[in-house]
Amino acid sequence: MKVYSSAFLVFCHAVVFFQMSMEWKYLFLAAALVALSGWFRFYSQPSTFIHHQQVRATPKISFYKLSLQWPPATCHGTLRCKPPIPSDFKIHDIWPQDRYDEPIPPYKKKNPCTRKRPTLRKDLRIKLHTVEAHLTSEWPNLTDGLNMTANYKFWGSEWEKHGTCSDYPDDPLTYFKSALKLRRGIKTIVRFGRQTSWTVNQVADEVFYVLKAYPQIACNLNPSRTQKQLWEIRLCYDRPNPGQTPHILINCTHILRVRKGKIIGPCKSLSDSIFFP
Ligand SMILES: *[C@@H]1O[C@H](CO)[C@@H](O)[C@H](O)[C@H]1NC(C)=O
Ligand SMILES: *[C@@H]1O[C@H](CO)[C@@H](O)[C@H](O)[C@H]1NC(C)=O
Ligand SMILES: *[C@@H]1O[C@H](CO)[C@@H](O)[C@H](O)[C@H]1NC(C)=O
């Protein structure tokens, strides 16, 4: 049945084809060629068809997510920190994300994302030297924020995970400075005071009110695991043109983080109440 209807379709197309003008014939042929090559690519890689994951094997950067953590929540829940604990939002990282809001995976020999050679972690000390003081203040490893070994460990792991397949694989200075620049441009993120409770939705609306873009909110739990806390506010930026760094705020697609269709983290609903420590 399917073969017959396909044959009929080909016949109809042939009839139409002979009635077309010259330009339309070329257009038609070009379209047919594109369709055919698409079909060929699709079926010549059956693995991409069977395993949904492999369709995303070479994800493209769609936008950047600047992740800002609230140190009193990080240090009273996720990490043990040496005092003093800062009381303003500090950078966790800037992540290249694909259009499904999944992180772009890190560079690997087996699956290279760029023809450039990504800067090695061990070279970061030389490359970041000029912004080291700035990074220490805005992007500290909260466990031991004045310890440069600890800081470089943190920057090194974030670089390997998220920088090596960003738009700046061989330019860590630009990658790290892009986050510093965004952070410096934000004076206020939320106007409410500490030791207050809000729903996830209220926090998102507050950020929208202040910055005119919806954030993503991440929660963690206090040490006795009795209270959900506002841990991170993440801001989304359009992928910049070549030669630029992220600067256009866009709405994040998910207020709570979704992975493979499931909300992850302790906050499961926009009406969950969260504490701002
Ligand atoms: C700094 O951190 C490193 C590990 O990241 C640790 O081995 C070292 O003891 C720390 N230095 C001080 C002075 O605490
Ligand atoms: C932060 O510093 C601590 C203490 O030096 C270290 O154990 C930890 O691995 C660092 N964090 C990251 C993410 O590298
Ligand atoms: C973000 O979402 C809000 C509400 O849906 C909408 O009014 C606004 O235009 C959006 N902003 C951007 C930059 O897309």
Describe the model.
The chain is 40% helix and 17% strand. The protein is α+β, with helices and mostly antiparallel strands and 277 residues long. The protein has two domains: 53 residues; 214 residues, Ribonuclease T2-like (Ribonuclease Rh, Chain A). The strands form three sheets. Strands 1, 2, 4, 5 and 6 form a five-stranded antiparallel sheet that branches. A hairpin with a 2-residue loop joins strand 7 and strand 8. The site of one 2-acetamido-2-deoxy-beta-D-glucopyranose (NAG) has 4 residues, from loops. This is Ribonuclease 3. It comes from Gossypium hirsutum. Keywords: Membrane, Transmembrane, Transmembrane helix.
In short:
The protein is α+β, with helices and mostly antiparallel strands and 277 residues long. It has helices at residues 2-19, 22-44, 46-50, 52-55, 71-78, 124-127, 132-138, 148-163, 172-184, 200-211; strands at residues 63-69, 90-97, 196-199, 216-221, 228-238, 249-250, 258-259, 262-263, 273-276. A hairpin with a 2-residue loop joins β7 and β8.
